[in-house]
Design brief:
The protein contains twelve helices and 13 strands. By secondary structure, the chain is α/β, with parallel strands linked by helices. It has two domains: 2-174 and 215-239, NAD(P)-binding Rossmann-like Domain (Rossmann fold); 179-212 and 242-271 and 288-326, Alpha-Beta Complex (UDP-galactose 4-epimerase, domain 1). It has a seven-stranded parallel sheet with strand order 3-2-1-4-5-6-11, with helices on both faces. Strand 5 (114-120), helix 5 and strand 6 form a beta-alpha-beta unit. Helix 1 packs across helix 7. The protein is globular and about 55 Å long. Bound molecules: uridine-5'-diphosphate.
Length: 328
């Protein structure tokens, strides 16, 4: 079997590559290395089953040849994070919308058997119900959420019009080894682990009572793998941990001092996926408990030496546009 992983040098994509190589797949990675790192694929150095191509997915003319002969496409390549999406919405549009259309079209022309898209639970914005089902109203709060949702619409449209077999998985707060360490402020684990390494207090937002559906990356990858194996198409499914945990609980598990920073506009007090649909259709369920997942993060904490160290004043500066544009 041959798989193509867009964003395969990134956080989730590189775990997908680990899984596919382990299962005996031949894998082609397309990555522009804007956030991805070759080091994330170091386990497979010199493995002839892995081909890594430096290319931007929005470059349709040049990516399409890599789809020939591929059985399944896993589409993770995207720009992430809230603040830069507010500052540079067109960059996000190009990667997450134009790029996704290019991946769909290349997949269609190559007659691939399945395309699985990494969608974002941020499409639910501040939802009315918890756990949140896939049928909840779509309420993107910022350009990142909007562009990831537009990407999902494109995938489903190619499924409907061109009968491309597609699945969209809406991911909730994925964490795990190799989660991004890039310069922009975002993703709580990277922020907190760098603070712990430097003996600085954790910058807890608001009261810290807000909760998140933290989902461990290997569980997410298993959901993608199962979606590729099982005969299902044109489905949108949540991928979550089956639970929701407060930031205060996270801080307790990590251990360390705390400092408080202001609550951010447009942020939900809770994210919590209703995962009954994916359990039923794929027979998938999460396996890694939060306690175990956090322990694994602490075991690989050295990785975040390269992550920027954030403090209340630098966070205030970095999130200026967030407060400026999203405050109601
Ligand atoms: N968070 C925090 N301190 C930080 C960064 C994040 O307390 O320095 C909290 C944030 O309020 C949210 C959770 O961690 O409740 C997850 O934030 P992240 O930005 O990782 O994901 P999202 O808010 O998009 O779910």
């Amino acid at each position: 079997m041959k798989a193509l992983v867009t964003g395969g040098a990134g956080f989730i994509g590189s775990h997908m590559v680990d899984k596919l190589i382990g299962e005996g797949y031949e894998v082609t990675v397309l990555d522009n290395f804007s956030n991805g790192r070759l080091q994330n694929l170091a386990n497979h150095k010199n493995n002839k089953n892995l081909k890594t191509i430096e290319i931007d997915i929005s470059d349709f003319d040049n990516i399409k040849k890599y789809f020939n002969g591929i059985d399944v496409v896993f589409h993770f390549a995207a720009l992430a994070d809230i603040v830069p999406s507010i500052v540079n919405p067109l960059d996000y549009y190009k990667s997450n919308v134009t790029g996704t259309a290019a991946v769909c079209e290349a997949s269609r022309l190559a007659k691939i058997k399945k395309l699985i898209y990494a969608a974002s639970s941020s499409c639910y914005g501040i939802p009315d119900n918890f756990p949140t089902p896939e049928t909840a109203e779509i309420r993107p709060q910022y350009p990142y959420a909007l562009t990831k949702y537009l990407g999902e619409q494109i995938i489903m449209h190619w499924g409907k019009v061109y009968k491309l077999p597609v699945v969209s998985l809406r991911l909730f707060n994925v964490y795990g080894p190799r989660s991004r360490t890039s310069g922009t402020y975002g993703a709580v684990f990277g922020v907190f682990l760098a603070q712990k390494l430097n003996n600085k207090p954790f910058t807890v937002v608001g009261s810290g009572n807000q909760t998140r559906d933290f989902t461990f990356v290997t569980d997410v990858v298993n959901a993608f793998f199962t979606a590729a194996q099982i005969d299902c198409k044109n489905e949108i499914m949540n991928v979550g941990s089956g639970n929701t945990y407060s930031i205060n609980e996270l801080v307790k598990l990590l251990g360390g001092e705390v400092t408080y920073i202001p609550k951010r506009p447009g942020e939900p007090d809770c994210t919590f996926a209703d995962i009954s649909k994916i359990k039923k259709i794929l027979g998938w369920q999460p396996k890694v408990s939060f306690e175990k997942g956090v322990r694994k993060m602490l075991d690989s904490i050295e990785y975040w030496r390269q992550a920027p160290l954030w403090a209340p004043d630098t966070i205030e500066e970095a999130t200026k546009d967030w407060f400026r544009y999203l405050a109601r």
